[in-house]
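Collaborator request, handled under Task 6.
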Amino acid sequence: MTGVIKPFSKKQLRALSWWHSNSPYSTRDAIICDGAVRSGKTFSMSLSFVLWTFYAFDGCDFGLCGKTIRSLRRNMVTPILPLLRDLGFCCEERLSQNSLTVSYGKRSNRFYLFGGKDESSAALIQGITLAGVLFDEVALMPRSFVEQAMARCSVSGSRFWFNCNPEHPEHWFYREWIKQAEQKNALYLHFTMDDNPALSEKVKRRYESLYSGAFYERFVRGKWVAVYGAVYPFMSDDAMYCDPPECGLENFTISCDYGTVNPTSMGLWGRKDGVWYRIDEYYFDSRKEGFQKTDEEHYAALRALAGGREIRQVVADPSAASFIEVIRRHGEFRAAPAQNNIVNGIRMTSGALKDGRIKICKNCADSRREFQLYRWDNSRRDDVPVKENDHAMDDIRYFVTTVVCGGSGFTAFAAKR
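Structure tokens returned to the collaborator:
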């Protein structure tokens, strides 16, 4: 072995061995591991799943399910393959078929990768017979997909494996599986960062500093709690705002949340020394002004905001098809729809603000105003912000999810247009 794997914690060892005949949990039909980020649950569970398949089966098919196949490869498949090979397993990955064949001695099993991103994903897993299925980040998958995958496990001795970070306490998986683990004959293990011996105290403190409010309770303490109050409570601190850099900015980008009756908000961003600065903005509220602007008038405002700078890309509201088309027709800027997952986008934006990857300049008055007013909707049973004072908040979120956390994918997409 390479020696990079530290001794497992007691909770990881329990996840690794629960299925063994000598374990007091060997008669359970399922295992559920939830808790904090970076708590070691995913790695120990993925290794345990593969070992169990060879302990109990030979020549069978198994399912590995993630929110997307890409995230599944990143979170689970890629980290586990080197260790399996060190342990003497032969692993043959077939990317075009989204499958993995693993052999040990004369035994061999097949693992099929599935993405459960929306309700239509349930159709992708129909027809296959499985001896077991593992769900990575099950709380991010639609119930129909999870239940369809479970229904495919008709081989005698098949079991279910679930892991996730917490979400809203009204989430169907929390109510029907975690709260009813004993009735489901499932072993429930709750992980904290202290259950991961590979995590240093310095790294733990860094993760603790990235989150606040309900996201701290969820991702650091591992609790299924409802969000409440301000979405970005830490942005009430004046120290979170800065003066625009006097020079050295590059890679200028504009983010846009478009509205006709609702306000239109645009932000001008520049990058310096690895930090993105929101150096200027445009905000037009038709209700306040008493008239609406056309797409062409908003495009003129976009050009004025650019101020003659070379703009690499315009990250636009994905619902603003007509405005995106106007931008493309003029041929001056490259534009494409932004990524638009609200709750995950808020989490990424919160992290980017707290760790300094993005900074809001003091002159961006409408952003500062909305940061103070943006609230979670406590009348809902899911995580949704109130649809008020959210236009600069949306354009900032589009920028973070598509540019800051989206890598080069946007640029490559826009270049094809």
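The cover message to the collaborator said: "The two ends are 48 Å apart (CA to CA). DSSP finds 14 helices and 15 strands in the chain. Please let us know whether this matches your experimental observations."
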